[in-house]
Design brief:
Chain B: One of its GO terms (molecular function) is heme binding. The complex is a heterodimer of chains A (about 120) and B (about 120). Helices cover about 75% and strands about 0% of the residues of chain A. Chain A has 4 helices and no strands. Chain B has one domain (about 1-120): Up-down Bundle (3 helical TM bundles of succinate and fumarate reductases), CATH 1.20.1300.10. Classes of the chains: A mainly alpha (about 120), B mainly alpha (about 120).
């Protein structure tokens, strides 16, 4: 690969627009979910192993810390999914203009907040 | 720079498509799991759900989609930030080391998932 290719954008020197923030959050939530997947696999493991481990898991998930961890992973899933769906919609050529991008970013953030709050209500 | 050799499909267009298809499968799977959990579930019903072959096949499909999706996504992040341009030579070392760690973790997730689905 050619190392001498020019770099046009040095993002460290710019004020980031809302579309950049949703993009970075999409990446960050993806990395977070990769780690969070261990939590989900652990929960799936305990839920299917035996009636005893299922009961222990249910007991464990009543603690506020476990609920908080689960909520964080679910919140990551919600945000990452909505931002991903936005990508798919844009792949079809919808909302690719400057205003479309900003509107899409706002919709992703707004919908995420609503769904994450609802998920929190469901978990507690 | 070790970039192209560590990507998932060795082609940007292939990775682009795999990322989207795997993303749609994962979204469908998490919605499916969410629908089954929303009203609360007991051990018998939960166990019966995962005893069905099609649910195991769907779960394995999601697991393999996760493997590809995570590989491509984390490759994109690492090759953007842990680079020679931003960090000097140690960027390359750190990136390849982290990539190895990620790939080993993906492998463990897949084997663990298969054990959960067919082991109990």
């Amino acid at each position: 690969m050619n190392d001498k290719r020019p770099v046009n954008l040095d993002i460290g020197t710019m004020r980031l627009p809302i579309t950049a923030w949703t993009s970075i959050t999409h990446r960050a939530s993806g990395v977070f979910l990769f780690v969070g997947m261990a939590v989900l696999l652990y929960i799936l493991d305990a839920s299917l192993k035996s009636p005893e481990s299922f009961a222990t898991l249910k007991e464990c998930l009543t603690s506020p810390i476990a609920k908080l961890v689960l909520w964080a992973v679910v919140a990551g899933l919600i945000y990452h999914s909505l931002a991903g769906v936005k990508h798919l919609i844009m792949d079809f050529g919808i909302g690719e203009s400057m205003q479309g991008g900003v509107l899409g970013a706002r919709l992703v953030i707004g919908l995420s907040v609503v769904l994450i709050v609802l998920a929190g209500v469901w978990i507690w | 720079m070790v970039r192209a050799v560590t990507s998932f499909g060795r082609s940007g267009l292939s990775d682009w498509l795999v990322q989207r298809v795997s993303g749609v499968i994962l979204l469908a799977y998490f919605l499916f799991i969410g629908c089954n959990l929303i009203g609360g579930v007991d051990y018998i019903a939960w166990k019966a759900l995962f005893a069905q072959t099609w649910v195991r096949v769907f779960s394995l499909m999601a697991l393999l989609s996760l493997a590809a999706h995570a590989w491509i996504g984390i490759w994109a992040v690492l090759t953007d930030y842990l680079t020679e341009r931003l960090m000097g030579t140690k960027g390359n070392v750190l990136r390849v080391a982290l990539q190895l760690l990620v790939i080993v973790t993906i492998f463990v997730y897949v084997v663990w998932g298969v054990q959960i689905l067919w082991g109990y």
